[in-house]
Design goal:
With 543 residues, this protein is mainly α. The protein has 27 helices and 3 strands. Strand 2 and strand 3 form a beta hairpin. The structure holds zinc ion.
Length: 543
């Protein structure tokens, strides 16, 4: 049998054991097994529904503020309902493998459903960084790091949260959330990578499911409480919400145990080395966290509450680095420096004269990061020529860098030089076809040149691979409105709200679209199907 106190169990061995057990189980008697499981699952659902009510009541007593109570009413309850329904419909058709205790607590399929519901909440409630350049960089980096992780399924939803405090999290279903503040607090790419590889380890070791197994009484229900509380804390940007929410249950279920955190450190550390980074960077990141903790007073960032750094955690990390015998390794990339500079400028207040601050900083330290921060701060102050001049310093050093070329196009667009911006964006797209930030910018430029059809087409190309990205749908709707494609505008907004989980609003948009689609039979059919689906969704929620 698989031992759940996972530190001693290597995942590959565990997987083999699971397969053997499950094959034996299948060989016994599949029909009897299925009937038994169906009965068992029906019982579980009844228990779950009772538990949901009990926990729901307890949570309501734990929420003190009006805001949290409102959130609970509108979202938490629907979250419980959606998930409960999904369990009813999905589990029976997707029987958990016998003997796999981890999957038995929460199946991989269920983790995906939890993840989707969670993502909807985050999209709808949390302030997102709407910057395709930062998004693209982060996604590519995470995929690259994951290549040497223990994850078998490497498909992620990367959410960038517009918050300058330090935080990162991994939620079931491949969701990785990162605050802008992680960039600010990780001095270089290797320190940043140490946090990412730690989070990837939580996913690969299925800590979410294993944590639920630990609390033997409430399993699935506590999963819901935990994930909702997590969403709540992130959305409210209020670490205390993380404590207030599930206090009704047990504090134990809220955070990963020290053993699981240690395991994530260990797997994360191995991943970091395999990805070629300097092994010392994990210890350094912990030191940064100690420093942040010291300076944060009562306002302790979320990440430090869930990941307290003890002196032994720091020394363990440095000892492990020493033991590898590896000296050096990858530290930084040029693009990480640019992204960090970009965010530094974006978060500086007041934003309009941040260039004075960065000019001064640059006197002392002429790093690429600081030059880029100056470029960006001039841009924010609409001092476009100065911004281009500063960018010229970087372009001279790195003429082929795509991020710099894109920044060039962005500034040209900002100053209204649309033809030059278009030429520059086309140059980037020639080198990197379907590049996400380049295409987003290119479609804006085309729209500015009244080339609405081409602008729409370029975004539709992106949607082929990124149809769940709400920002593309939103931008498409704006271009369609500008181009007077009102039918398209309502349909794109409908898709946008659907991703955000705002079904009522989505339904409204598709109803508007239906009225406009009378002359186009195929489109009308499509919209009618969509409306039917949304109505079913709403009815299920109301049950
Ligand atoms: Zn962790």
């Amino acid at each position: 049998m698989l031992t759940i106190n996972g530190d001693s169990v290597e995942p590959r061995t565990a997987k083999r054991k699971i397969e053997t057990t499950s094959n034996n189980a299948k060989a016994n008697d599949s029909s009897v097994g299925k009937i038994f499981l169906k009965i068992l699952l029906s019982c579980c659902n009844i228990v779950l529904s009772l538990l949901s009510k009990r926990i729901d009541y307890k949570i309501s007593t734990a929420f003190r503020t009006k805001k949290l109570a409102m959130f609970k009413r509108t979202h938490l309850l629907s979250f419980f309902l959606i998930f409960h329904l999904n369990i009813n419909s999905q589990v029976v058709s997707n029987l958990p493998t016998l003997g796999d205790r981890v999957s038995g607590a929460v199946s991989v399929e269920q983790e995906k459903q939890i993840g989707e519901a969670f993502l909807g909440q985050i999209y709808a409630q949390a302030p997102l960084i709407n910057d395709p350049m930062i998004q693209e960089f982060t996604e590519l980096l995470i995929y690259r790091i994951s290549e040497t992780s223990a994850l078998s399924e490497r498909s992620f939803n990367v959410v960038l949260i517009d918050d300058k405090t330090l935080n990162a999290f991994a939620a079931p279903g491949g969701i990785i959330g990162i605050n802008g503040g992680l960039f600010l607090n990780a001095d270089d790419e290797s320190q940043f990578a140490s946090v990412i590889s730690h989070e990837l380890a939580h996913l690969s070791q299925r800590h979410f499911a294993r944590n639920i197994l630990r609390g033997s009484d409430t399993n699935m229900a506590s999963a819901l409480v935990m994930i909702s509380a997590l969403a709540l804390a992130i959305i409210a940007n209020n670490p205390s919400a993380f404590i207030a929410g599930p206090a009704a249950l047990s504090q134990e279920n809220l955070r990963y145990s020290r053993n699981l955190e240690k395991e994530a450190d260990r797997f994360g550390f191995n991943n970091l080395i395999k990805a070629g980074y300097d092994p010392k960077s994990m210890g350094e990141m912990f030191e940064n966290m100690v420093q942040i903790r010291r300076l944060s007073g009562d306002q302790i960032p979320e990440f430090l509450l869930t990941h307290p750094v003890s002196s032994s955690r720091v020394s363990d990390a440095f000892n492990a680095a020493d033991q590898t015998g590896i000296i050096g390794g990858k530290r930084n990339s040029i693009d990480y420096q640019f992204i960090r500079g970009r965010l530094k400028a974006d978060y500086y207040k007041p934003i309009n004269n941040s260039y004075n601050y960065f000019k001064e900083i640059l006197e002392a330290d002429k790093s690429n990061e600081n030059i880029y921060a100056l470029v960006r701060s001039y841009y924010h102050a609409t001092k476009f020529q100065e911004s281009l001049d500063a960018l010229g310093l970087l372009l001279k050093k790195f003429p082929k860098d795509i991020m710099l070329q894109l920044t060039n196009a962005e500034i040209l667009f900002g100053m209204g030089n649309l033809e030059a911006a278009k030429t520059q964006a086309e140059e980037v797209l020639r080198i990197s076809p379907k590049n996400y930030p380049a295409t987003m910018l290119y479609s804006k430029i085309l729209s500015g040149l009244d080339e609405f059809y081409l602008a729409e087409e370029s975004l539709r190309d992106l949607l082929i691979t990124k149809k769940n990205n709400p920002l593309i749908w939103l931008q498409l709707s704006e271009i369609q409105r500008a181009g007077k494609n009102i039918l398209g505008y309502h349909m794109s907004l409908g898709e946008y709200y659907l991703i955000l989980g705002q079904i009522d609003e989505s339904l409204n948009q598709f109803r508007f679209a239906l009225k406009l689609s009378e002359e186009n039979f195929q489109t009308m059919e499509y919209i009618l199907e969509k409306i039917k689906l949304l109505q079913t969704n709403l009815r299920n929620r109301a049950r």
